[in-house]
């Protein structure tokens, strides 16, 4: 049953995504973090998970997914879209999962984390991503998504479901680095800074949708793919 759910979920995301346009902005910020083919940690709000899953599919990203039951559905679905999942959260399996994410980053893989997941509070970054960045030495690339036509669910995260033929924008924020030997105070400062950069990226994404323009060209490949490690 779980395999069937994963197959159906991946098919639905792909079918819906192909009707939409995806535009990336702030690519120069992404390029700055990626300099020298550097792996990165993608950071985004849980509400944008569906759009992000489609936009970054088949790039070999390692994603942190909770051990809750809904996390199992998510894991089965996104694995069929080219992601590798590492199971854990701040409440269940957290320490081991964070360690596995650090190791994956040091091995050259991109990482992806919903920074306010798996249970919120909404748009409040958890500290786990800062510790991963600190231990792995990887830069954090915050991004936010906006959608012209959407359903907003009544869940804790106000999950976004794009409607068919919607225009979607993925806006990269300024990359963030965390010193390897930062104190708790430094981690907290960086956590607040990450929240700020995510909100700035959200504002830019929403403003990009305001002009009425022809966005019919899909540019899924407008950011460079990370070279697969051997």
Estimated share of beta-strand residues: 15-25%
Number of helices: 7
The SS-based structural class is alpha/beta
Low-confidence stretches: 212-221
Distance between the termini: 33 Å
Give the helix proportion (percent range).
Answer: 25-40%
Strand order of the largest sheet: 1-9-6-2-5-3-4
Overall geometry comes to globular
Total E-strand runs: 9
Tally of discrete structural domains: 1
* Integer average pLDDT: 89
3D architecture notes:
- With 230 residues, the protein is α/β, with parallel strands linked by helices.
- The chain has one domain.
- It is 40% helix and 18% strand.
- The protein is built from 7 helices and 9 strands.
- The protein has a 7-stranded mixed sheet with strand order 1-9-6-2-5-3-4, sandwiched between helices.
- The protein starts with a helix and ends in a 22-residue tail after the last helix.
- About 4% of the residues have low confidence.
């Amino acid at each position: 049953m779980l395999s069937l759910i994963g197959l159906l979920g991946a098919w639905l995301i792909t079918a819906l995504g192909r009707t939409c346009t995806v535009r990336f902005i702030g690519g120069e910020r992404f390029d700055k973090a990626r300099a020298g083919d550097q792996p990165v940690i993608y950071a985004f709000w849980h509400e944008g998970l569906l759009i992000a899953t489609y936009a970054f599919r088949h790039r070999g990203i390692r994603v942190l997914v909770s051990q809750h039951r809904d996390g199992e559905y998510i894991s089965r679905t996104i694995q069929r879209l080219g992601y590798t999942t590492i199971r854990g959260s701040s409440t269940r399996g957290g320490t081991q999962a964070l360690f596995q994410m650090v190791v994956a980053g040091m091995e050259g893989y991109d990482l992806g984390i919903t920074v306010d997941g798996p249970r919120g509070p909404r748009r409040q970054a958890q500290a786990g991503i800062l510790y991963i960045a600190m231990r792995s030495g990887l830069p954090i690339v915050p991004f936010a998504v906006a959608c012209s036509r959407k359903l907003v669910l009544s869940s804790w995260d106000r999950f976004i479901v794009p409607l068919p033929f919607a225009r979607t924008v993925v806006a990269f924020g300024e990359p963030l680095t965390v010193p390897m030997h930062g104190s708790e105070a430094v981690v907290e400062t960086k956590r607040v800074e990450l929240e700020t950069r995510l909100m700035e990226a959200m504002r830019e994404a929403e403003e990009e949708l305001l002009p009425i323009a022809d966005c019919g060209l899909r540019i899924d490949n407008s950011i460079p793919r990370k070279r697969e490690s051997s």
